[in-house]
Amino acid sequence: MSTTAELLKGAAELFPDEVVTSAHVRHLDLPFGAGRFALVTLDNGFDHTKPTTFGPQSLANLNAAIDQVEQEALAGSIVGAGITGKPFIFAVGADLKGVELLKNHDEALAIGKGGHDVFKRLSALAVPTFAYYNGAAMGGGVEVGLHCTYRTVSKAIPAFSLPEVFLGLVPGWGGCALLPNLIGAERAVSVIIENSLNQNKQLRGKQVFDLGIADALFEGADFLEQSLLWTANVLNGTTEVVRDEIDRGEAWDAAVAKGRFIADSKVHGAAPAAYRALDIIAAAKDGDLQAGFDAEDTALADLIMGGELRSGIYAFNLVQKRAKRPAGAPDKSLARPVTKVGVVGAGLMASQLALLFLRRLEVPVVLTDIDQERVDKGVGYVHAEIQKLLGKGRINQDKANRLTALVTGVLDKAEGFADADFIIEAVFEEMSVKQKVFAEVEAVAPAHAILATNTSSLSVSEMASKLQHPERVVGFHFFNPVAILPLLEIVRGEQTDDASLATAFGVAKKLKKTAVLTKDAPAFVVNRILTRFMGEIQNVIDEGTPVVTAEKAIEPLGLPMSPLVLLELVGPAIGLHVSETLNRAFPERFTVSPNLAAVVKAGKRGFYVYSAENGFKPELDPEVAALLVQGDVVLTEEQVRDRVLDAVAQEIGLMLEEGVVAEAQDIDLCLITGAGWPFHLGGITPYLDREGVSERVNGKKFLAPGLASVPA
């Protein structure tokens, strides 16, 4: 039987590049004569921009610190022990770079067991233990504190979570067993399942306290001092910690059932992590913690060796790393400053863009449109949104006044754009209209100004072709809703120069968007893939497959919404327009559905209607059903899925051959950040590789072995 130290030593040898966290032990005399106290501080030696993690050597260091504290507790030389983090960071969990390297079930099991063996020792000490959540705490960082007797939390914490299910894991160092036994199953399911599957929602300090995870809440400025005063009072008996009694009856079972409903609605059974976590929470009802820890070890090892986690880590690395260094972006030193922004158009999309530029750049923003009423409406929208931010306490009155003063609207482009550095159009999606707008803008804008288009599918090169300076035109395609979806497709036209492109990337960074460089190809990345995807669904419906079968066929992908609900969100008319654009470019692969055209002609908002009697679930609109003209070829769900996935794999293969983006990773980054495709798929290419679709269609996988899969 290996000891914990031997387990961790073996694991550390697999992971020589670990950023090692130290566990410093220092001693202090608590106030009010409460006695001598041991405080362990977790610190990897870097500032808050490199958060503290637990790799095998880091766990070994914490284990050694606990050795020392254990001896002192047994000798009676301390009255308690605490654990805290470096400034702004408590600890953010297991080091995922190490998890990626694990090649077999035994190695994965050792990581789970190693963490448990170390953390469990905190609850087994002969003195009370305290966790002081002073800064960001996630995953194993939260769990190490759950093993302590008491916990305090800082009001200033911006991020506290158990994000494992989001990535394709379970909280595997005590979270699934300990949290429901601390705060009850319903609240634990909310933190472990619901928040994770809700785009990894984070808790703030007060929420952590309100949920009962922490026993006391203190201001950030003197958090540790206040925590130690509180600790002294707890140890003296002056302060008594009272926790809610846990309901281990029907409420526990109802919470687990609710968790399964949430998981079904989000991933449709397609990703195992949420269900494994719920099984452990269900079994934790009897309070047998060791059985829970053993179940966590097994689940952790199984999931580490599965494709979902590898895809989840791959997706995490795309969003956290690749997104910060866009492939193909020019040297940022070429970027020009942007001190004023012009927006052509004052409709909803243009107004959203104006608000975003205003909030992030805090420079003058001017809108223009064809009549005063539209201009006033656009400026009014921005002003109203600023007032909402003020009402929610997101900005103060001074900032609200400043932002309100910075946004204006004019009819005369010469007046509005004569000193603008960056001008973006968001007018009707028609080439002749956009060319006319750009000609008018070029006539009045300064020579250095960037002319950007928010087109979703039209050629940027053609749009710029009649200008005197086409080199300053760039595609700047946002996704709706602008404030929420992070993706920004930056399109390089045939004549776009490096300075214009660098300026566009510089602006994107200030807007806090994930910028991906794309070639000027029809519909760029997301809309091209989604249109091929949706087009194939539409084809099978047109040929005769029932709508419900076509929709259900895609459920195993665990997408955020079904294809026809997505069409409703995008708008059938826009969907039709993009399919017509792509049909003109690639008639052999992109069809224009007569049924979709009929739905648009009839002015329908989508294929579905929703009623309170049916719990607002989508039901095929009888009026739409009457419009549908279908053939007699009826496919099974599996046949539909194969056809759709084959079409998507073919399209991605062609896009990579055309050089639309640098690599398959950029396709996945676009789908995750622009279309909300789930982390557990890794976007789309890891899933196509894993299911054998890539090789069936293209004769090869999209990704190298080990990139989003278990290393060979």
From TrEMBL:
UniProt keyword annotation of Kinase present: no
GO molecular function per UniProt: enoyl-CoA hydratase activity; long-chain (3S)-3-hydroxyacyl-CoA dehydrogenase (NAD+) activity; NAD+ binding
Location of the 3-hydroxyacyl-CoA dehydrogenase C-terminal domain: 524-606
SUPFAM superfamilies per record: 6-phosphogluconate dehydrogenase C-terminal domain-like, ClpP/crotonase, NAD(P)-binding Rossmann-fold domains
Catalytic activity: a (3S)-3-hydroxyacyl-CoA + NAD(+) = a 3-oxoacyl-CoA + NADH + H(+)
Organism for this UniProt entry: Streptomyces venezuelae
Name of this protein: 3-hydroxyacyl-CoA dehydrogenase
Pathway: Lipid metabolism; butanoate metabolism; Lipid metabolism; fatty acid beta-oxidation
InterPro entries, A to Z: 3-OHacyl-CoA_DH_NAD-bd, 3HC_DH_C, 6-PGluconate_DH-like_C_sf, ClpP/crotonase-like_dom_sf, Enoyl-CoA_hydra/iso, FA_oxidation_alpha_subunit, NAD(P)-bd_dom_sf
3-hydroxyacyl-CoA dehydrogenase NAD binding domain segment(s): 340-520
Keywords attached to this entry: Fatty acid metabolism, Lipid degradation, Lipid metabolism, Lyase, Multifunctional enzyme, NAD, Oxidoreductase
GO biological process: fatty acid beta-oxidation
Pfam families in UniProt: 3HCDH, 3HCDH_N, ECH_1
CDD domains per the UniProt record, alphabetical: crotonase-like
Similarity field: In the central section; belongs to the 3-hydroxyacyl-CoA dehydrogenase family.
UniProt keyword annotation of Lyase present: yes
UniProt xrefs under PANTHER family: TRIFUNCTIONAL ENZYME SUBUNIT ALPHA, TRIFUNCTIONAL ENZYME SUBUNIT ALPHA, MITOCHONDRIAL
